[in-house]
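As described in the Methods, two query proteins were run sequentially through the folding procedure within a single session, without resetting any intermediate state between them. The first query and its resulting structure tokens are shown here.
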Amino acid sequence: MVDRSATAELATLKSVSAFWELLTRCGKFLPEENSKYVTEKQLLLVQKGQIFAMDQSQVVFRVCVRPPSKQVLIQKLLGYLETLKIPSGIDMIKQNYPDKAWLVLAIATVSNG
């Protein structure tokens, strides 16, 4: 479990869902709340700016009618983030993957469309 004494906001949160909502209300564009990527540890790293996260104002919106598999999207995103030297927070062993829709928008955002 993550040490909640780190910030006043976290001390009052009772669930991952509440933490996800707090970060979303603060302007972060996160994967779906029910994706394997969204855990208390991941959200804390997002809050601290230690892993890749998009602000809602940064998102480049694109529609992908037939997106490739989640694995292909993850590899593409990891390639972009590696070039930018930004840690992704995605663990291939744990398979804590974000949802496809978020991956498509993340790739569009880091590639500038």
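Immediately afterward, the second query was submitted; its sequence and tokens are:
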Amino acid sequence: MRKPLIAMSVLLLAAAGVVRAEVAAEAIPPEVILQFGPLAVGLIQMQFPNPPVKVDPSADKAVGYHVQEAYAVMALPDRSLTAKSVDDAGDKEVPVGVIATRALSLQEKDSVVSGDRLAVADFNGVFKIPLFFLSVKGNGANRELEVYSKGGKSILTVPLKKQASDAATPLNVHLSNIDTEKKRLDVTVSLGGAYEGTINLGAVDL
């Protein structure tokens, strides 16, 4: 008798919107990244010749994920990014890489950073791609991720913590807490296989 009651309770909660199927991000296929990664790098370098952080992005080790093909996050590491370069960061910021998104911007409490504050790459008039230029600075024993977009002022500072991950992927991203109703998600950024920090993203109209 107990199992039918539990099953009925779950069905009722689901009907009331209390229980929702968890939405998971899917990896962008390697062949797609191989095809479009170099185009993205060329586009960034052409349209933003003087970015707020002098990043030399590499498509060779780019990774990306999408959510139901509506939102996407791609990470393009700086060619010099390693755990040691993060360890050596001080007052002078160390370039980390670029995060390019599809229809996502930084979440600020109940709103997102609007389009007029974003560096937006125009992909042949078909896609508009928000860009975030990343660097690391040292503050004593601590390391902080600085996030830039349009202009020379950081729009977000994220504390980093020591966390071992895949060193073969210098700049990695993991999407979690995906809420398709509120159009928000969290992105954990891994640096050099040794540090990580989390940023919040939300849907943006461009």
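Residues 22-203 form one domain. We note this only descriptively and draw no conclusion about the first query from it.
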